[in-house]
Amino acid sequence: MRTLSMRDALNEALREEMRNQPELTLLGQDIGAYGGTFGVYKGLFDEFGPERVRDGPLCESATVGFGIGLAISGMRCVVELEFMDFTTVAMDQIVNQAAKLHYFLGGQVTVPLLIRTPIVSRMGMGPQHSQSLESWFMHVPGLKIAIPSNAYDAKGLMKTALRGLDPVLFIENVKLYGTSAEVPTEDYSIPFGKARTLREGTDVTVVALSGTVPEALAAAESAAQAGIQVEVVDPRTLNPLDDAGIAASLRKTGRLIIVHDAYRTCGVAAEISQRMMETAFDYLNAPIMRVTGLDVPVPSGALYQNVVPNRENLLQAIQSIVN
Amino acid sequence: MSAKSPLSPEELLHLYRKMVQIRVFEEQAIELFGKGLITGTTHPCIGQEAISVGVCAALGREDQVLATYRGHGAALAKGCSPATIMAELLTRTTGCCKGRGGSMHLCDTAQGFLGTNAIVAAHIPLAGGVALSNKLRKKPLVTACFFGDGASCEGEFFETLNMAALWKVPLIFVCENNGYAISVPTNLSQATPDIADRARGFGMTSVVVDGNDVVAVHLAARAAVEEARHGRGPIFLECKTVRWERHSAFSAGRYEDPEEAQKWKRVDPLPRFREMLLSSGTAAAQLAKVDQDCQEEIAAAVAFAVQSPSPDAASLYEGIFVE
Questions:
Q1: Are B168 and B234 in contact (CB under 8 A)?
Q2: Start and end residues for every CATH 3.40.50.920 domain found in chain A
Q3: What is the structure's pLDDT at B243?
Q4: A25-28 sheet: strands from edge to edge
Q5: Interchain contact A58–B (C-beta under 8 A)
Q6: Cis link prior to B234 (omega < 30° from 0)?
Q7: CB of B248 within 8 Å of any CB in chain A?
Q8: Is the peptide bond before A240 cis (omega within 30 degrees of 0)?
Q9: What is the DSSP secondary structure assignment for residue B107, as one 8-state letter?
Q10: A197 touches B: beta carbon within 8 Å
């Protein structure tokens, strides 16, 4: 089977759906001839033109607002927010408008809006360009959240998102754009709410998100050499979250570590941990562990490496939880 | 106001009927709030009826309106049924939003009424997106967006002025300048006397009109709709008005000057329009008949609302997502 980079897989998903859905419109900044800040839109402007691949002014809030306006009019829209940190500027539109309109207007409108935004946590870009804010959005009812870690999942989840009627926050990762995976040429989609086991193991479950997935797989490989069999589970979506899938792995291994780049306090790990306490407590052979970003603003430069988790401190956690 | 109106007797009577309908509706809403039948809050538009009536009478049924939390008048003016709107104020299942929205969140897509919003200015970019959808689909529809002087200080207002003007969307900005943002008067919040000046800065046709003169508002709106419908939008209308004595039925809303709180009565658009109709030859009996009809219509709306069931708590999780 052919392999595609995550960047190209996302590009292909968008291109195919734009061909299938003549009203699908892209809004954002630097998305036209420039091809998107990280190149995900390469070639789309040439194929679909400036009406549908619509570069606009630098105003995240109204850009999302216009996207919602198109969506409630029945025109599916994809808005790109160039760094996840910039979602903060559009917070009202995302959490008070997109997430709630369908509910509080009694189902009269639907919001088929997809907001794409990349985490840029491992490039040393400093405190305003490095954040993983997924838990903020998981906190709010009404937003679906995809957070794929590889090309195959990215394309399949993007397809589902672009065919549904609910607002979706699609969280990508700049460090993963260049990583490749097998992606079929035939059409496929991946349902939300189904975790994927990326490596099977019997001793400890590691639930990893986004950019920490490669670190988790590397740590699992190292652990295997020391005789510890690690199961690596990627939830792939946070809303809905596959509680049952994570719990099934936990029941098998009896131990759980959750890893993410985001800040430790009120991070997704805290939520997953609590849900497992509520549903699978009796299967725990050790306290659940978190390996997360530190509760500090992410500094500029190489020091970021001390802030986000890596395979070494994850391996330490694995060794500690089995002993 | 000239004795000889450019409007036909039927058109004038329609404007009068809608203004009385809204006035009676709002008086009933305040009474029901006082009785505890409306929970939370409610924002009457008493004294500002001429704006929503004058503008909406210039729109067709398929044209779209988005408005603010002070939006009962806009909903009725756009053709929503008083019974379903009143039921929504009382959060009953028969309400336009099934009792999920309440006083600040009204919607009836069948009437082109796409919702009122309780985050100040947040609906302005949504209206921009709706107007953009009309343009992209080459539909000859116009979108009108009502907002207050308070909203004109928000970033999304300026962002949307820019985007709407840049993309020449068929949108009419209708600023209901009632002189107050809750307790802060415009002289403490606005750098210039006319909010309309801001739109001129974006190269937009921008008109200031006496918002308490329904004929003046209507004629200005007709001209604006004509322009916007023929691709010469967006257009800005600033309608100067005076707010009812308080921000909402809930708020204490004391003014420094008690005289000021009663100012709306001295410029009340309803008796003023009635005088104009009588002096131009409309029979008093004809107006009395309209008054009576509206009293009966709203009494029936209240009865319908009061007798309707409240939503069951078991339905709380329904409709967060479409699928």
A1: yes
A2: 196-322
A3: 86
A4: A53-55, A25-28, A77-80, A113-119, A168-173, A144-146, A237-239
A5: no
A6: yes
A7: no
A8: yes
A9: -
A10: no
List the structure tokens of B62.
């398929």
Contact between B49 and B212 under an 8 Å Cβ cutoff? The reply is no
A196-322: in CATH 1.10.10.10: no
B314 falls within a domain:
no
- Domain annotation covers residue B262: no
Q: Does B130 contact chain A (CB < 8 Å)? A: yes
Sorting pLDDT into bands at 50, 70 and 90, what band is B181? confident
Does residue B151 register a pLDDT over 70? yes
Would you say residue B55 lies in a domain? Answer: yes
Distance CA A287, CA A272 (A): 13
Which residues neighbour A112 within 8 Å (Cβ) at sequence distance 6 or greater?
A71, A76, A77, A164, A165, A166, A167
DSSP B100: S
- Collect all residues of chain B within an 8 Å Cβ-Cβ radius of residue A59: 155, 159, 162-163
Q: How far is A111 from chain B (nearest CA, A)?
A: 9
Q: Give the CATH number for residue B218.
A: 3.40.50.970
3-state secondary structure of B310: coil
* Burial of B273 from C-beta contacts in 10 A (0-12 / 13-18 / 19+): buried
CA-CA distance, A34 to B63, in Å (whole number)?
Answer: 36
Tell me the pLDDT tens digit for each residue of A9-35.
999 999 999 999 999 999 999 999 999
Please report the pLDDT score of residue B253 as a whole number. Answer: 63
In degrees rounded to 5, what are phi and psi of residue B175?
A: -90, 115
Among the partner residues B114, B133, B163, nearest to A57 by beta-carbon distance: B163
Which residue in chain B is spatially nearest to A164 when comparing CA positions? B323
Q: Is A129 one of the annotated active-site residues of the chain?
A: yes
The ipTM value here is 0.96
Between CA B15 and CA B10 the distance in angstroms is 9
Taking the alpha carbons at both ends of chain B, their separation in whole angstroms is 55
Q: Does B312 reside within a domain?
A: no
A208 and A260 Cβ atoms separated by less than 8 Å: yes
**Nearest chain A residue to B99, by CA:** A106
Do residues A257 and A205 touch, judged by C-beta distance below 8 A?
yes
Pick from B309, B185, B244: nearest CA to B29: B244
Tokens of residue A81, six digits: 């927010």
DSSP string of A162-209, one letter each residue: HHSSS-EEEEEEGGGTT-EEE--SS-----TT--EEEE--SSEEEEE-
Q: Global pTM?
A: 0.96
Which residues in chain B have Cβ-Cβ distances shorter than 8 Å to A62? 124-125, 128, 156, 159-160, 163
Q: What is the pLDDT of residue A268?
A: 98
- Give the dihedral sign, CA B144/B150/B153/B155: negative
Structural domain containing residue B233: 9-250+270-303
Number of domains composing chain B: 1
Q: What percent of chain B has pLDDT over 70?
A: 97
Nearest residue, CB atoms, B101 vs list A105, A141, A164: A105
Tell me whether strands A77-80 and A113-119 are parallel, antiparallel or unpaired. parallel
Q: What CATH class does A3-182 carry?
A: alpha beta
CB neighbour list of residue A140: distance below 8 Å, 6 or more residues apart: A95, A99
Contacts of B109 in chain A (CB under 8 A): 108-109
